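User: Hey, quick favor. My workstation is busy. Could you predict this chain's structure for me?
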Amino acid sequence: MIEELKHIKFPSIGQFRNVVTEVREWAEKTKSPNPTLKFTGTVKLHGTNISVCSTGEVGDDRLWLQSREKILSVDLDSLEINASLLEPYVSYWNEMMAIIRTMVGISTKEDTILIFGEWAGRGVHKNKKNAVGILKLDPALYVVGIALVNRNDIQVMKSGQEIIPWRWLTQHQVETVFELMRKTSLAKPPIHNIYDFKTYEIEIDFTNPELAQNRLVELTNEVETECPVSKALGITGIGEGIVWSTPNFTARGRTMHEIRFKVKGDEHAVSRVTKLASVDVEKLESLTALIDSCLTENRLMQGFDYLKNELGLKRTLDAEPQFKKWVIKDILKEEKDTIEKNGFDKTEVMQIVARRASQWYRVMVT
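Assistant: No problem, here it is.
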């Protein structure tokens, strides 16, 4: 059976800065304003990535386990997860798979259902300080997401990289699946829904994402001080961090699929850049105020008229580079001394000016 199955790797979760770049590039390509997005945060656990899988075919009772890198047959399963999580609870998992098939309306063997989670608990990871709360509990699967993938739609690039068309169940759908299982199944496998524990919310304006950093740091420190998941299960200990995600969103007919990023505390950061640094809010607010004073509506309209009256251009998206160039040149001509007097980096200021001018222009021409 193992040879017939397709390993589908859990997508990598990047850093906050990666998401900022990704969203801004998406806005640039779609000629859309930088969005303000609402993110939901769940507790990041110190475990190993595992998924319980089946096909979308009705009546197919095949189940298999995956790690991040391979399908876990019994002989490859060093943590004996098959024996703890899968084999004693086959009926439970098949019942859950049936609920998911019905909920999302799939019925073909080309569809794969993947219930992703962190297998975490005593013995899963070594910890010299023995302070991580989750490592004091019996091993269990903490489900962090449920995804669907049609294998026929996976694209393989020349480099060998796979482009996977993920379809993620929403938080509400995941919660509904678990609620139905609690009502219909008597089995008690070692499994938890991460949404049953404390969650967090934050809005991030991708024009000024730095304004969200201090709140992200504050919440991460809160989790690191005491893990909300282990606390809810009766154990005190430190936590690892938070994983933030937002659902798909669409602008101008193009969809950006669910994006995620992680923020870890000091104890779990594997490099200095993994831990999100605080920002100088006063300096950032001063910079924002300076740009607000320079990038006035009158100046933007002057540049907008310049395209037509002076350059003879149609004011379309194609003329955006010329518009930004004029705005930057005009600000530097008249405001350079103010920028330098306030001690700001000219390049940094002009990058922000260019982004905000682009946002304004796109709204005007579309």
